[in-house]
């Protein structure tokens, strides 16, 4: 059985690597990029079961990225992460199509549970 592919988008390379290690151990295939422009290129090249994106990144931010993903890949769930969570950001992310909004520091068990829910596992 082919592993389900997850795209991680975050400008914090160490955070990307941490998520990659955890999610690879959970049986997922991971690709990671450090900004929204790279993410849009990856999404043109390949299909992903799920996307995890940071909210605050240089260039294309997470909210704008969610909108772009939702327009081209409406069935791909997106989980947004942020170190700066507030109600307005949460509402904006959900209104633009985010499946889940999780604040950092992440509890990995909560993230994995959200991934399972998003993928119907």
From TrEMBL:
One of the GO biological process terms: phosphorelay signal transduction system
Keywords: Phosphoprotein, Two-component regulatory system
Source species of the chain: Candidatus Schekmanbacteria bacterium RIFCSPLOWO2_12_FULL_38_15
Residues modified to 4-aspartylphosphate: 54
Domain Response regulatory residues, every copy: 5-119
Name of protein: Response regulatory domain-containing protein
Highest taxon above the source species: Bacteria
């Amino acid at each position: 059985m082919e592993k389900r592919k997850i795209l991680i988008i975050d400008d914090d390379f160490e955070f990307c690597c941490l998520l990659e290690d955890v999610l690879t151990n959970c049986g997922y295939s991971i690709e990671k990029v450090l900004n929204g422009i790279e993410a849009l290129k990856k999404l043109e090249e390949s299909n992903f079961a799920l996307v995890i994106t940071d909210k605050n990144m240089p260039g294309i931010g997470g909210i704008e990225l969610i909108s772009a993903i939702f327009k081209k890949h409406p069935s791909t769930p997106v989980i947004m992460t942020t170190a700066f969570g507030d109600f307005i950001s949460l509402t904006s992310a959900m209104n633009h199509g985010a499946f889940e909004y999780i604040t950092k520091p992440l509890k990995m068990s909560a993230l994995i549970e959200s991934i399972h829910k998003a993928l119907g596992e």
